[in-house]
TrEMBL record, chain A:
Name of the protein: Mannosyltransferase
Species name: Acetobacter estunensis
Bilayer-spanning residue ranges: 26-47, 111-129, 141-161, 181-211, 223-244, 281-298, 304-328, 349-369
Top-rank taxon: Bacteria
Keyword Zinc included in the entry's annotation: no
Signal peptide coordinates: none
Entry keyword annotation includes Acyltransferase: no
Keywords in alphabetical order: Membrane, Transmembrane, Transmembrane helix
From TrEMBL, chain B:
Lineage per the UniProt record: Bacteria, Pseudomonadati, Pseudomonadota, Alphaproteobacteria, Acetobacterales
Highest taxon in the source lineage: Bacteria
Organism per entry: Acetobacter estunensis
Protein name, per record: Uncharacterized protein
Amino acid sequence: MVRPHFRTDVAPQPKRHSCGNSATNLLVIAACCLAGLSVCALLAIPWGGLVTANCHWDCWWYLDISRDGYPSLPHPAGTAGPGQAAWAFFPLYPALIHLTNRLFGLPPQSAGLLVNILLCPLLIFLCQRDAEWRGQPVNRALFALFFVLFPFTIWYTAQYSEALYGVVLMATLLALRRHHILPAAMGCALLALTRPTGFAMSVCLAGWWLVAHRDERRSTVMAESLLLIAAGGAGLSLFVLYLAHLTGDGFAFLHVQTAWARHLQFFVLPILQAFKKMSNLPGGLCAIATIGLLVWMWRRRWRLAAWLVGMTALMAASTSVVSLERYVFGNPLTIEFLACITLTRSPPIRALILTAMGLFHILTTLGWYSHNPSLM
Amino acid sequence: MFRTLLIVTLLSFDAFALWRGLHPHVSDTYRDYYIAHTIDLPTFLAREKADLAKNPAVPTSH
């Protein structure tokens, strides 16, 4: 059933916002983020504070890159993760950590956290704008609160590249919705430099652009789509050429996945395998929840979001279901969709959902601080 | 015109990077483990160590 208040992804709705309005909105968002961060800081005390508690798994890779750059050789025998190398981690986030470290003289671990603390309000702001573009009546304060309370936003304030990826993705999407092709192409290039799925997102966005504007002049739309792909490709190409220069293998970022025992396979197989082992069960359940979410998004006519989140999930699940919850439920488009659904409910149900989410957020935060492998 | 020129330039750059990526200059050990998947991790590590001992000045990935 199509709800009248949900717009399709095709028709743009230009909306003007005054500077003062936006500034007040940003202040409200920043206040919500600050409140959430204060609670996290209190919870982090037993683990040595916010900076230390948040930094594990991929965080160390990003910090190594920001400090020493990429290595030319993988980890040797006798070290942690032999055969593994930082090539799997894309350069934009560590570059920002390095820049923040140089500008403010902060240690890399704190610089990484600061980058994300600053990006998080911007991401919520961009998601709000996207929801408003869809004609969705959004209570801005509640929307920001939803984002802060959502249990799978823990990576937005950890030293991970999720916040940067989310900001670039939403900015690119908004630029496209407003027909700003060149900034969108720039966004595609940055996306490809942020995460391995970035280039694929550029291709998905180009495909959507082609379909969404099929009634317009064919050659123009084709050229615009091609520009998005070429720009995304250029971002990835920069990294490929750098790796080729450094290691001799331009696709080292892909090949090094072998050291994590990740091999490309039909996406159903890793999901089925997850149900055979108790420790992988959360990943398997998350895959099932992902399918449900995608069907729900599609039926609610959030087709672009379903397309982008679906392709991300497909790529992730084609090697392993580990971290699927981060790729799918930590995706800003998923959070925006769930926020829009929740905030149209009656006030008592809304309050109940927000309270339950707040409690679950505390649990996921504690799970993250105590290195729970289900939240990698 | 500008847009066409931009697309052609970017696509040429992409094609060059793709060609460079498809033609890696790596050691046999690296190729066997990371690309061809014909050896396992312990074999890779042992061969890397042996390669490095033979010629310590040259990184074995190249």
